[in-house]
Design a protein that fits this description.
Blueprint: H1 2-24, H2 59-68, E1 76-80, H3 86-95, E2 98-103, H4 106-118, E3 125-129, E4 142-145, H5 149-162, E5 168-172, E6 183-187, E7 190-196
Helix pairs in contact: 2-3
The structure holds S-adenosylmethionine.
Length: about 200
């Protein structure tokens, strides 16, 4: 029993450090003018502990993820665990895409809203403080992820059940187990995975 507990803790520790390494090896400055940083005033706590720590995707990787998914102005993009909002805001700025960012941490939502205001993208983007496992993201035509391997795996059935066939999913750094991606690409030391939701009959 003790040994199993110890093993679980060890696995969680390794996953979190791999996320930090994936994020830090290629860290770049966020592109929008003067990005907002976390404010020290009126800090709220998340409704529960986040499943994943906050590590931003480098801007070069964000740009490539959007290119790989062929994001355009007719899409509705959901970033599940949206951090400072950079993926959703970049899609709005570059392609005129409507986007929704979901984050469980109110500080991240505050930062993302500030960044959206500074980027003058508030007419296209929206940030919701929600648990991504409780979120209805069925309207999405593109979903972006930068989570953890076990969180991707836990999310996979919900993605396959709720998303329309043809919806594109792009993940920074982590795959989805035995669901083979259609494309895998390396950018500045980061790996990007790309899937398309299959027809329900498959
Ligand atoms: C690694 S960061 C990625 C941020 C952003 N998507 C990016 O690529 O720059 C993961 C984010 O997921 C959020 N998060 C963790 N667990 C969550 C949950 N259950 N529901 C919603 N957001 C969550 C964290 O607060 C954090 O901001």
């Amino acid at each position: 029993m003790q040994l199993r507990k110890l093993l679980k803790l060890l696995i969680a520790g390794v996953s979190i450090s791999s996320l930090a390494i994936a994020g830090c090896t290629t860290q770049r400055q966020f592109d929008t003018q003067s990005p907002a940083t976390t404010s020290s005033t009126s800090v709220q706590s998340p409704q529960r502990q986040p499943d994943v720590p906050y590590v931003p995707t480098p801007q070069t990787v964000v740009d490539r993820m959007l290119t790989i998914a062929k994001v355009n102005k007719n899409d509705v993009l959901y970033d599940l665990g949206s951090g400072d909002g950079r993926i959703v805001i970049t899609a709005a700025q570059k392609y005129g895409t409507r986007g929704v960012g979901i984050d469980i941490n109110p500080e991240r939502i505050k930062d993302a809203n500030n960044n959206a205001r500074q980027a003058r993208a508030t007419d296209l983007v929206e940030f919701r403080q929600q648990d991504l496992f409780q979120t209805d993201f069925s309207e999405a035509t593109v979903v972006t992820l930068y989570l953890l391997p076990e969180v991707n795996l836990k999310l996979r059935p919900k993605l396959l059940k709720e998303l329309k066939p043809g919806t594109r999913i792009v993940s920074h750094a982590f795959d989805m187990g035995d669901w083979q991606p259609e494309r895998v690409e390396k950018v500045d030391g980061s790996t990007i995975y790309y899937w398309v939701v299959p027809d329900k009959a498959q």
